[in-house]
C-alpha cells in the first residue's frame, strides 16, 4: 500500500519507516506478541487505518495522543499510527498514581487517550479532571459507554489522508516525560529525526544485520523500549514483545524464536542467568547481550559469556533527552574497561566540562554535555528548563563523569541525585515533595542505597516536627497515596537533624557514605 510521495520519502519520518519495510519485505514478520504475529504489510495496513481514524476524530497535525499500556502489540500500532497522522504520541508510565496521570495528561494537552482495560476504572475516577481529553479508547473489555473499544475501530473502512508536505523530520513525534528533580515531570520533545537517527546510530555501532530477531522486555513507555522497536524496524527485523519480565519466559523465547539480540538492565540479566536449568535452553542464536541503566557487575558479564557463547556484550548509556543512547562500551572492551560506559556513538558529540563550561583535564570529574541530531527539541511548555538545559549551545545532562587516557567515559555520580532501581529512574526530589505533605514531617532527604537484587533501593531520612510521631510503615503508606508504588521508600530512618554544609545545603553525600559504612 503506497501512501507516500517523493517529498515525504526524503524525510526521516517514523511513519515512513513502516511504509519502507512493507514495500521491501511485505511478508516479513515484524512483531510477535503472544499468539499474535504481524507482518510488515499487515502492520502498515493497521497503522494507516488507525491513523485515518485519528484524522476522522478531528485530530490535526501536532495534536497529542496519550498511551497508557503495558507492553502489547497495540502500543506499536498506536505509536506508528500517531506518527503517520502527523500527531504526537505521549507514552505514559502505567505505574503512576492518579494525581501523576492527571498532571501528565493535562500538561501534554492530550486529546485522545489509549488505555488498557485494567486502567479504565482509574481513568474514569479522574475523568472530570481531564478537560482536554476528547476520546478514550480501551484495549480489552470495556465497562462504560463513555469509552471506545479499540477493536471496533477496525470494523469499518476508514480512509487515510496523506500528510505529505505537512510534517517534516524536525517536527515533534513523541513527548516522553522524565521525573522532575523539582517535583514535576518534564516532557522531552523528541522529533522524527531524533528517534530515527538514534536507531541508526545503534544499528551501526552494534552491527545489527538486516532481518535480525530481537526480544523486547523493557517497558515500551520507556524511551529504551521505543528505541529498540525503531532499531528493529530500521533493519526490517522481527521483534518479539513480552508483556512483562519473566526470566524463564526470556529463555523460552530465545530458544524457540532463535533470538539474535535483547536488552535488559543488569538486575534482569542476573535473574535470567540464575534460572536453575538455564543449560537446557539453546542460547546460541544470541549475538548481542545489551545492557544499561546501571553498571553491569563483572561477575554478571562472565556468566553472560558462559551461557551466551556467541554473543558480544554491549553496555549502553544515555537519557531520554538524547533519544536515548549517547555512549556504548563495545564487546572488545567489555572486560578490560568493565566499569566504563564506553565512547560516544555515531552522530553524538561529547564534552566533559566544569561549571564554567571549560573542558576538564583527563581523569578529572566534570559534567558530560552533548550536541548532535539526536538531542531533543526541548521541554514541552517549559522554556525556562529548556534554556537552562541548552546553555552554551550544548545539552547539559546533569551526569558527572570522568574520562581516561584512552577516552573511555566513566559515570561517577548523578548531579540530579537520580536513583536507578531495577532499571526504573527515580528522582529523590519527587519523593521528598510527597513526604513534605505529611503534617508530622519537618524535613526529609531521600537517597539510593545499595540493593543486591535491584541495584539501588530508596531510603528516606526524616526529621519529625516537635511532639509528632510516625512509624516507618506510616511513612511508606503516606507515600503510596501520592506516588507510584515503585517510588516509595523501602527503608525509613528517623534523625534528629540532617547533615548540612555551612550554607545550609543538605549533604546527601554524607547520608550515602553512612549507608556504605553500614553495609
From TrEMBL:
Domain AMP-dependent synthetase/ligase, chain residue ranges per copy: 19-380
Transmembrane segments: none
Gene Ontology MF terms: acid-thiol ligase activity
Pfam families reported for this sequence: AMP-binding (PF00501), AMP-binding_C (PF13193)
Alphabetically ordered keywords of this record: Ligase
NCBIfam families (alphabetical): PRK06187.1
PANTHER family, A to Z: LONG-CHAIN-FATTY-ACID--COA LIGASE, NONRIBOSOMAL PEPTIDE SYNTHASE PES1 (EUROFUNG)-RELATED
Sequence similarity: Belongs to the ATP-dependent AMP-binding enzyme family.
Name of the molecule in the record: Long-chain fatty acid--CoA ligase
Organism in which the protein naturally occurs: Neobacillus citreus
Top-level taxonomy: Bacteria, Bacillati, Bacillota, Bacilli, Bacillales
Amino acid at each position: 500500500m503506497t501512501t507516500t510521495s517523493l517529498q515525504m520519502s526524503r524525510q526521516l519520518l517514523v511513519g515512513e519507516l513502516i511504509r519502507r519495510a512493507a514495500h521491501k519485505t511485505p511478508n516479513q514478520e515484524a512483531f510477535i506478541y503472544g499468539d499474535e504475529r504481524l507482518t510488515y504489510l499487515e502492520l502498515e495496513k493497521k497503522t494507516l487505518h488507525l491513523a485515518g481514524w485519528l484524522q476522522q476524530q478531528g485530530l490535526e497535525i501536532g495534536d497529542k495522543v496519550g498511551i497508557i499500556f503495558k507492553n502489547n502489540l497495540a502500543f506499536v500500532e498506536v505509536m506508528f499510527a500517531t506518527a503517520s497522522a502527523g500527531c504526537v504520541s505521549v507514552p505514559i508510565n502505567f505505574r503512576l498514581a492518579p494525581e501523576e496521570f492527571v498532571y501528565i495528561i493535562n500538561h501534554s494537552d492530550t486529546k485522545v487517550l489509549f488505555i488498557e482495560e485494567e486502567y479504565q476504572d482509574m481513568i474514569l475516577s479522574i475523568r472530570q479532571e481531564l478537560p482536554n481529553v476528547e476520546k478514550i479508547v480501551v484495549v480489552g473489555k470495556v465497562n462504560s459507554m463513555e469509552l471506545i473499544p479499540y477493536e471496533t475501530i477496525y470494523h469499518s473502512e476508514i480512509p487515510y489522508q496523506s500528510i505529505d508536505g505537512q510534517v517534516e523530520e524536525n517536527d515533534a513525534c513523541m513527548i516522553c516525560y522524565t521525573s522532575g528533580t523539582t517535583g514535576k515531570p518534564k516532557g522531552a520533545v523528541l522529533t522524527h529525526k531524533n528517534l530515527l537517527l538514534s536507531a541508526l546510530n545503534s544499528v551501526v555501532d552494534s552491527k545489527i544485520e538486516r532481518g535480525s530477531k530481537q526480544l523486547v522486555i523493557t517497558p515500551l513507555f520507556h524511551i529504551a523500549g521505543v528505541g529498540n522497536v525503531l532499531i528493529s524496524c530500521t533493519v526490517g527485523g522481527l521483534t518479539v514483545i513480552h508483556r512483562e519480565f519473566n526470566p524463564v519466559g526470556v529463555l523460552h523465547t530465545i530458544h524457540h524464536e532463535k533470538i539474535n539480540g535483547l536488552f535488559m538492565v543488569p538486575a534482569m540479566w542476573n535473574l535470567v542467568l540464575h534460572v536453575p536449568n538455564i543449560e537446557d535452553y539453546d542460547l546460541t542464536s544470541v549475538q548481542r547481550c545489551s545492557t544499561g541503566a546501571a553498571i553491569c557487575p563483572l561477575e554478571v558479564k562472565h556468566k553472560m559469556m558462559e551461557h551466551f557463547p556467541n554473543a558480544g556484550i554491549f553496555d549502553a548509556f544515555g537519557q531520554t533527552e538524547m533519544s536515548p543512547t549517547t555512549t556504548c562500551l563495545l564487546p572488545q572492551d567489555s572486560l578490560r574497561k568493565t566499569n566504563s560506559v564506553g565512547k560516544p556513538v555515531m552522530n553524538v558529540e561529547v564534552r566533559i566540562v566544569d561549571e564554567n563550561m571549560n573542558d576538564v583535564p583527563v581523569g578529572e570529574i566534570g559534567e558530560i554535555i552533548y550536541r548532535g541530531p539526536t538531542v531533543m527539541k526541548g521541554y514541552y511548555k517549559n522554556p525556562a528548563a529548556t534554556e537552562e538545559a541548552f546553555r552554551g549551545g550544548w545539552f547539559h545532562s546533569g551526569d558527572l563523569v570522568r574520562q581516561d587516557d584512552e577516552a573511555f567515559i566513566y559515570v561517577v555520580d548523578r548531579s540530579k541525585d537520580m536513583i536507578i532501581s531495577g532499571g526504573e529512574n527515580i528522582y529523590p526530589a519527587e519523593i521528598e515533595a510527597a513526604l513534605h505533605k505529611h503534617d508530622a514531617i519537618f524535613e526529609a532527604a531521600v537517597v539510593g542505597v545499595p540493593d543486591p537484587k535491584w541495584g539501588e533501593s530508596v531510603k528516606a531520612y526524616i526529621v519529625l516536627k516537635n511532639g509528632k510521631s510516625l512509624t516507618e510503615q506510616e511513612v511508606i503508606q503516606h507515600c503510596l497515596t501520592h506516588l507510584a508504588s515503585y517510588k516509595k521508600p523501602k527503608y525509613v530512618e528517623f534523625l534528629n537533624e540532617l547533615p548540612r554544609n555551612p550554607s545550609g545545603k543538605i549533604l546527601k553525600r554524607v547520608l550515602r557514605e553512612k549507608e556504605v559504612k553500614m553495609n
